[in-house]
């Protein structure tokens, strides 16, 4: 390859080198992409560029629905806390139920022993009454006269 | 583009109408009530909501006959809410005829709406029990959420007008539309259908985004149809302007107009409905046209429709191909291009 010419396989290049010895492309017909006219916002609708309207609408709409979904999740959590069907609620219920059962058992035991105490006291009293009654029956009768038949 | 829409709307719509008619007429013939209950359902309608329920149930593997009562419940509830909505908005026309309260008076219309609201839960309760506790619980959960969101959205729509709020943004509007329209019209019917098709074994959150974008597109198109008020529209011409509803058109025109125009617009918005003349409504309509508000609203609807197509792929892309899956996808261009 000579030092001043490009081979034929280099289309678009100048066939001659510039004075400083560098190869250069010819001047370009354009330096920016061909645009449809929409990439810079397109025509105006309702006082705004169409692309601005579309972009703002989509962004705002997704913010609105995102906030609604978040509020829905919060509400669902509140409902599940109030409803007696969550696992956490069930374990709290179980604890309350157990302590109530213990208290009930304690109350029943106290009542049982109180009742037994009263019953035993009553049994003791009846036995005492019966023994005293028996003693009275077993005691000798007072005849009211002495051995000589003279009234006392 | 909407090849499956009309055939399924007609086929499923006929089944649902038959079920709803049979359900409502099987009730005792109560004076001052029975006739009112059957009125709105007998006027027809698009049947979009119950068909969304049916198509979701089928697309997720459910049987057609199982889906009919659930879709019937969706349609009855929708009609009940329409009765109350017409009273709240002081609307005079529904589906081409006078509104129920215009025909029978407000007290009887409220009573009929109350009755239908409660009756709508009949088909749900009749059919959830046999499918197990998990399914019943999930159906009731999504229904409770829908009821809450819809009531909140309706409260915003009414409250903004009642308080003469002029500072409503596009984000506020979309939030209101999500609650007032999308939850009842698209999200909830889809959730009920997909839960039915999977016996409650799917996360109902997965269709919320798709339902929101579809519902918001539907609502903006509804606002545009109200503005255009073609003869086939079936509601009071430009009723939204008479009511000064905080639509995207009103929000945009207020944002774009000159200070002296805004002063006049604020005066219009501060009036009571009966004080707004046809001339002042015509002035507002011209202002909206000159400021590009109609084109703007249509561009926003188109953007939301694009997002809906994207979310469809995320929510339904894994399902096997079917006519019902195509129907759900085709809803997006259909709601955007519909003329009624």
UniProtKB/TrEMBL annotation, chain A:
Residues 1-52, 68-92, 124-152 are annotated as: Disordered. Residues 70-80, 124-140 have a biased composition (Basic and acidic residues). This is Uncharacterized protein. It comes from Cyanobium gracile UHCC 0139.
Automatic annotation (TrEMBL), chain B:
The keyword Transferase applies. Its cofactor is Mg(2+). Keywords: Magnesium, Metal-binding, Transferase. The keyword Cell inner membrane does not apply. It holds the Pfam family polyprenyl_synt. It comes from the Bacteria. InterPro entries: Isoprenoid_synthase_dom_sf, Polyprenyl_synt, Polyprenyl_synt_CS. Belongs to the FPP/GGPP synthase family. PANTHER family: GERANYLGERANYL PYROPHOSPHATE SYNTHASE (PTHR12001), SHORT CHAIN ISOPRENYL DIPHOSPHATE SYNTHASE (PTHR12001:SF85). This is Polyprenyl synthetase family protein.
